[in-house]
Structure formats: structure tokens, C-alpha cells
Amino acid sequence: MLMHVINVGHDVFKANDKIADKNRKNLDRHGVLAVNIMGAIGSGKTTLIEEAIKALKDKYRIAVIAGDVIAEMDASRFRKLDVPTVPANTGKECHLDAKLVEKALKEINLKNTDLLIIENVGNLICPVDFKLGEHLRIVAVSVTEGDDIILKHPMIFKTAELAVINKVDLAAAVDVDPEKMVSDIQALNPEVPILLTSKHSRESLDVWVGAIEAGLESR
Amino acid sequence: MHEYSIACEIFEQVIATAKAHRASEVKSLTLVMGRLTHTNPEQLKFCFEVLAEGSIAEGAEFIVEMLSPSVECECGYQGRAEPPGHPTDQSGEDIGEDRSENGNESGARNRNESGAEAELHQSELLEYVAALNCPTCGKAARITGGQELIIKTIDIETEDES
Fold first, then answer.
1. Do B5 and A9 touch (CB under 8 A)?
2. Chain B contact present for A188, CB below 8 A
3. In this predicted model, what pLDDT tens digit does every residue of B108-143 receive, in sequence order?
């Protein structure tokens, strides 16, 4: 019997990052801007994406990867808007990873795509550890999750590049101060742009669409 | 909860490495886990143990060394970022040093306190994230470490030298 210590040095998350880098290069090669929309369950991710598609589809060629435990429901909502949509079923997993996105990318004609919207699984925890190859990391929460939602999930806000606080029209009904949520995000991530949105405020949706379009124009 | 899929990858890597070295048994494995990952060491250990049943890694000691975050700031600061007065913050003096490189002291401690350490990891994530501002100038700093999950070493047993 002999004992050996073997150096392994394998980073589980770096293995994902490597595939994410490959995805990123693939997207860049085709001039595609990819946005990863993360957020809580019921925060309005799908609705925000629908609004972006409606406002931008005549000007840009859009494709969507709809990630969910059962992705078909959201995917069918996007297909109704006539954009190519690939459902990415995560099965028992709580997040999309680079491998699932790599697989989904094979079903998208990147040559005919300007904007790829990736809707992550509703979850403020697990998606943080898994890069996908995206250019813009967006996190969406809504006031109905309570105004302590940000402090309970600091890493997703710390690493986000755009933060959306949605359903602000309901703030009074659920006794939440959106300004507290804004200042909690600013404390974690002073430079991140923060949008306050509501599906009933056209003006707020225009700002949201404008943020995506700014990304497209700076490609 | 993604510990199971991470444990699957760890298990596959451990078994592949062990077999490549003709191991008859895996005695222990040592992981380095960044404090900013959303991975629970206790759940990961449980998942690994379930996966390892009936394999050459069954019963292997599962050691997790926690790694504190490090940051880089535009003011020029590079180093660890830890909440003030935190138990792992041994003294104020070595704050710029990356203790994780040798990681031995904290590793040894964690060996005996993995349960308590797991709890600490969970409860203090916010404290760690809040401490990610530059300790020198107070600005929000770029995270350069603390998000990794590395299979560092495995201890194996082989039948003979051949």
C-alpha cells in the first residue's frame, strides 16, 4: 500500500468560464450582443423581454434563449412575437450554464442576429456563479419581493451591469419604498445603472428599451 | 441549489484523476472554496458522499478550505477584502497579503470545524460582499478572487508501485 498526494488544481467554475469565453467569441464573431436577464421568480423578466422585443424587432434582428426548468411556456410567449426562440430546459437545475447556452447557440442563426436575449431561470442565487458568455448582465427584481430582497442576495447586485426594479406601481400596495431598494443597490454597486419600471408606464418601458438599444449601438 | 451538479463534476474529476494514477482508494480530497460562491460546503459534502457510495472514493474525507475574497482597486490597492474584526482576519497588518496562496493555517482549522465554517460562510456572505469596497480608499473594487471552487489535491492509495 502506498499513499500519494495528487495535485489536481481543477476549478469547477473555470471549466464553465472557458465554455462561456467560447460562447462570447462565437457571438463576437457574428457581431451579436448577448444580454443575460437574471432575476427573481415573478419579477417580470418575461414581460420586460416582450416589451424589448416589441420595441426593437423592426430595427434589429432578435433571437431569444428561454431558460427555465420547463422552458416551453415562456418560449411560446416569445414565438408569438415572431422571433426565433430556443427553449433551454434546465431540468432539475436552478440556473443556465455556459454548456446549455453553447448547445442553444447551435440552433440560432447568429449570422442573422443582432441581439440575443437570454432569459435565465428565476433565481437570484445560482445564476451568479455561472457566466454564459453574455455582454451585459441584467438583474430584475420587483417591489413585490419585499424591500430587503437586495440585501438578501448581494452578489447578484454586486456583479450586475444593469439593475431593474420592476412593478413600482405596486409599491404602495405592498408597503415597499423603491428608493430603499435603489440605495441598497447603490451601496453594493455604486456604478450600476438602476431603472424603475412598470408595465403600465410607457415612459419607464421606453427607458428600459433604451438601455438595451444603447448596448446594441455601442457594439 | 446546484450542489448536486457541482458534486457530480467533482466526483468525475476525482475518479478520473485517481484512476489515471492507478489508485485503489481515494482517502481524502481537498477543495478550495471562495467565500463569494453560492455553494454550501455541507450540502456539497453530502452530495459527494452519496455519489461516492460503492466507488473507490467511498468514505473519503471531504476537506473544504475557505478562501476570502480579494479585490483590485483603481487607487492601486490589490489584496484581500475582509470584514473588519472578522475571525479569519487574524491581524490588521497582513491584509494586503493573500493568505490563500498557502492557505494552510485556515485549512487546518477548517478541517475540524467544517460544520461551523459552513454556517459562517452562509451567514456572512453579506458581510463579505459589503467589505468588497477598497479598504484603502472606500471605492467599489473589482473582485479578483473569492469566486472559485478548486479541487486542490486528492490523497490516494495504490496497491504497489507498478
1. no
2. yes
3. 334 434 444 544 455 566 677 766 778 788 777 888
